[in-house]
Amino acid sequence: MDLGTRLLLKHLSALPLPAEALVLDTGCGTGVIGCCLKKHNPALKVAFRDMDALALEFTRMNLQLNHLEPSGVESGLLTVEDRRFDLIVSNLPAKAGLPVLEDFFRNCSSMLTPGGTAAVVIVAPLAETADLWIRRYGYIITKEEHTANHSVFFFIPGKTPGASLPGGLHPYLRKNTTFLLAGKPLNLQTVYGLGEFDTPSYASCLAAELLAPIRLSGSALFYNPAQGLLPCFVAAGKDQKPENLFLAGRNLLSLLISAENAQKTGVPAGILHVPTVETLVKQLPPKSLSLLAAFPDSAGCTGEEEALTETARQVLKPGGYFLVTGKSSDLARLEKLGKGFLRRQHKKNRGYRSILFTP
Fold first, then answer.
1. Pairwise CA distance, residues 256 & 247, whole Å
2. 152 within 8 A of 91, measured Cβ to Cβ
3. For 268-305, how does the pLDDT look when each residue is reduced to its tens digit (9 = 90+)?
4. Residue 318: helix, strand or coil by DSSP?
5. What is the pLDDT of residue 265?
6. For residues 33 and 19, what is the distance between their CA atoms, to the nearest angstrom?
7. Following DSSP, what letter does each residue of 199-267 receive, concatenated?
8. Measured in Å, how far apart are the chain's first and last C-alpha atoms?
9. How many CB atoms neighbour CB 205 within 10 A?
């Protein structure tokens, strides 16, 4: 539990709440805040929400370990458009970007019941900005504390709350950018919080060069697609357009923007929001993919290389393609595990490598 969460929980322990109050822990991470509230007051109806599928898995585990029953554990972005809560809590993620955080404060009033409270903690460098947003959008601060590293704000809507704006991807949108990938121009909408917002990564360039000459049909799945450059590169091809496109990974924001960009190419994409790559085996029919293109987690999750190769064995058709792109050191480990796969081609540049396998 980080210091910001501890500070927020200290103040939440003294907050009076009605019986069976509706609580939202948004950007919940592993669910610490909501679990502590539920443990302290079992009658609370606590919903948990995050865009990271792995974080939600840990939330479910923590609920089970503590014998707690949530009102919901759901994938989603920071704001909610269709429900209201008596209490909204969040350890606000600074990495989400200022437009996303401002949208949260702007729209809190539309997520709260009459008399409801929002209680947040934010890192100290953003405290003055958060205070400005709270006052700009017509809230009344009922409690605050500032330390060297974090600030806590409790606030309620005033008599004239600020107007809310459309939610969804709107606050995350950054700019439209034209990328050149393996000689092909692609115009994509990009978002805050993800890389490749103005320039293709070395990884995407290497992967596109390997896929450029390949004629694809059937179903293709892209794991960890970032802003969607590679799936759009494939979907925009004249000779290599798959009939079905799937996007999978932990990060819901990445999947949503990639799907929106793919839609512009005329190939709708299905989204598989999964905590780990091996979960795909449960969601896809055996031997159903013509292409599995994966960008393994750059953090080098323990066992991911083995899980990725085993998943490819189970979901790829005979004659299908398994494309893996990432740091050279990570792919060296994966290649040792790739028994049963034939390396067709590979490219490398500046510490990154892309390898094309077939079963």
1. 9
2. no
3. 899 999 999 999 999 999 999 999 999 987 654 567 78
4. strand
5. 85
6. 18
7. S--HHHHHHHHHHTT----SEEEEES-TTSHHHHHHHT-SS---SEEEEEESBHHHHHHHHHHHHHTT-
8. 44
9. 21
Dihedral angle of Cα 284, 289, 295, 301, to the nearest 10 degrees:
40
Is residue 198 within 8 A of residue 271, CB to CB? The reply is no
Count of C-beta atoms within a 10 Å radius of residue 68: 18
Give 279's DSSP letter. G
Beta bridge pairs of residue 310: none
b/e 75-108 (16+ beta carbons within 10 angstroms → b) = bbbbbbeeeebbbbbbbbbeebbeebbbbbbbbb
Domains and CATH numbers, the chain: 3-157 (3.40.50.150), 172-358 (3.40.50.150)
As separate numbers, helices (DSSP H) first and strands (DSSP E) second, the chain gives: 11, 16
Amino acid at 219: S
Q: Give the C-alpha distances (Å, rounded to integers) separating 44 from 81, 89, 119, 122.
A: 21, 13, 16, 24
Buried b (16+ CB within 10 A) or exposed e, 294-311: bbbbeeebeebbebbbbb
Region of 311 please: left (phi>0), alpha (psi -120 to 50) or beta. alpha
- To which residue do tokens 């390997």 refer? 210
Query: For the whole model, what pTM was predicted?
Result: 0.89
Can you read off the two tokens belonging to residue 18?
């009605």
Between residues 43 and 266, the one the model is more confident about: 43
Q: How far is CA 59 from CA 54, 66, 296, in A?
A: 9, 11, 23
Q: Give which of 273, 271, 340, 283 is closest to 306, Cα–Cα.
A: 340
The DSSP secondary-structure symbol of 196 reads -
